[in-house]
Amino acid sequence: MSKLTKPLLFRLVDKFFARLDRKTPAEQVAAHVVTVRNAFRVETAGLLAAALFAKKTLDTTRQVDAPFPDAYLSGETPLDDAARAQLAAYAAALEKFQAQMFGRDTPMMVATGKGLSTWIATCYAMALPGLFPQAQEIWAKLVTGADGVEEAHQFLLRRAPSDVERVYFTYRPTALL
After folding, report:
1. pLDDT one-digit tens code per residue, 10-32
2. How far apart are CA 170 and CA 121, in angstroms?
3. What is d(CA 75, CA 103) in angstroms, rounded to the nearest whole number?
4. Distance from C-alpha of 117 to C-alpha of 147, rounded to nearest angstrom
5. Angle at the Cα of 98 (from 89 to 39), degrees rounded to 5?
6. What does DSSP assign to residue 80?
7. Contacts for 105 with CB less than 8 Å, ≥ 6 apart
8. Do residues 58 and 93 lie in contact, with contact meaning Cβ atoms separated by under 8 Å?
9. pLDDT one-digit tens code per residue, 136-154
10. Nearest CA to 142 among 35, 60, 67?
């Protein structure tokens, strides 16, 4: 087997097993809550840095057709049935985007993929009846890592943050805090 086909073969096998391990939206929320709840302070900063970098990526690259749901996350727009449907559709679109990055090893892709997990769980928690408190718990814990977000960003991306990225360090989904 040549060097060129081996990585592709491994990626295909990884994708196959990832599909077998697919979780429902509620299970994804529950799993992310556990991840965040059990994170040490440094890990919390890393999760927050990844989520904020993913938001910046979504805002600046338009990899997902729908715009980031700022109006719902800020509390400007109430959560009704239509909003919940939009949030669930957005989370599903984020999952597709995250799957596209699967197997790519650049620090930027890894950081974005990791951060998308937070947004997927957040959007599903806001969309599914009874799970809103889990979205609040995720973000209440994540903001405790705010002091270490710049250092975590540097660790994740292996470079200093840009001025644009620093602007995102202050973003918070105010409807959840």
Report:
1. 555 555 555 546 899 999 999 99
2. 20
3. 36
4. 21
5. 100
6. -
7. none
8. no
9. 999 999 999 999 999 999 9
10. 35
